[in-house]
Amino acid sequence: ANLATVTTINRDAAAATRHQALADAEGIDFLYFLSDALGPRLGRAFITAYDKGELGKAAALIKASEIGTGKAKKHFHNDRPFLVKGNTIHLVPDDTVLKDNKPYTADGGSFPSGHTNTGVTDALLLAQMIPERYDALVTRGARYGYSRLVLGVHYPLDVMGSRMVAESNVATFLNDPAYRALFNEARDQLRAALAKECGVSLTECAKPAGKDDPYSSPAMRTFYTFTMTYDLPRQAGEQGALAVPQGAEVLLETALPQLSAAQRRALMVKTALPAGYPLSGSTPEQQFWQRLNLVEARRAAK
């Protein structure tokens, strides 16, 4: 099912989806991809401020927070989809970024996905800084992982695992007092710079903009939930209460400042995926991070 799912996504992707996937792949060292999730007005302000260096502290902190996956890839040594004998993956020619029309490939093992770890980490941290666009940014991180399947270089399990790792890492960072001090300073600089570029409050600048704002579409809510499991088979009969790791509720802190830590933890449990999907293993931490649905948790509070 893992191979069949990436094969279908890779084969059936529209041209625009492939172009987006190529841009995501080649733009890993920068934060431009996140502008899509900010809406047209705030997105333009973000790019302008970013290019001017006005988001320096936030950009530096976010990129420095990414954790490498090289050792894990070597440990699991799992072949990428396009290397599996008898595969029907279509390697996508780069007609978007490098424009050399050479098929996009990737080296090393497939599990976990380094690009997804980067994209989800970046998106989660910016979502904490701009909670006005929380759902859209969290979903953009998931879309970044989806791009890896579009290109045929990763499986669903690769990107699902990296989502789990990134969520755990970001929660750990935000609960560290020294990191939090740097984060608060970076967030304040970013919000001031964006408000200046917008010329209005961030609340106003971040408002949904209909068809010009795809990440505010209700369809993205369904998409995000899909990327948590990619509809891979679920083991029947799996159940059990969900245990929230200490400090995990920090991921909803800026999105739901009116709620206590205990209330945010309760929301995480209430809106979690059912047990039994791949990677929700036997340990409490595995169970939690695989089943955690941040978008539904925030929406349930509203």
Helix-and-strand structural type: mainly alpha
Strand content: under 5%
Helix content: 55-70%
Report the span from N to C terminus. 36 Å
**Count the strands?**
0
- Compute the number of helices: 14
Low-confidence stretches: none
Task: Give a short account of the largest sheet.
Answer: none
Q: Compute the CA-based radius of gyration.
A: 19 Å
Name the overall outline. Answer: globular
From N to C, what is the helix and strand string? HHHHHHHHHHHHHH
Look at the structure and give the mean pLDDT: 96
SSE diagram, text form:
Layout: H1 2-12, H2 15-26, H3 39-52, H4 56-64, H5 70-76, H6 114-129, H7 134-150, H8 156-174, H9 177-198, H10 202-205, H11 219-229, H12 261-270, H13 284-291, H14 294-301
Helix pairs in contact: 2-7, 3-9, 4-9, 6-7, 6-8, 7-8, 7-11, 12-14
Task: Write a concise synopsis of the structure shown.
The chain is mostly helical and 302 residues long.
Describe what you observe in this structure.
It is a single chain. The protein has 302 residues and is mainly alpha-helical. Helix content is 56%, strand content 0%. The protein has 14 helices and no strands. Helix 6 (114-129) crosses helix 8. The longest helix is centred in the middle third of the chain and has 22 residues, at 177-198. The two termini are 36 Å apart. The mean pLDDT is 96.
Keywords:
302 residues; mainly alpha; 14 helices; globular
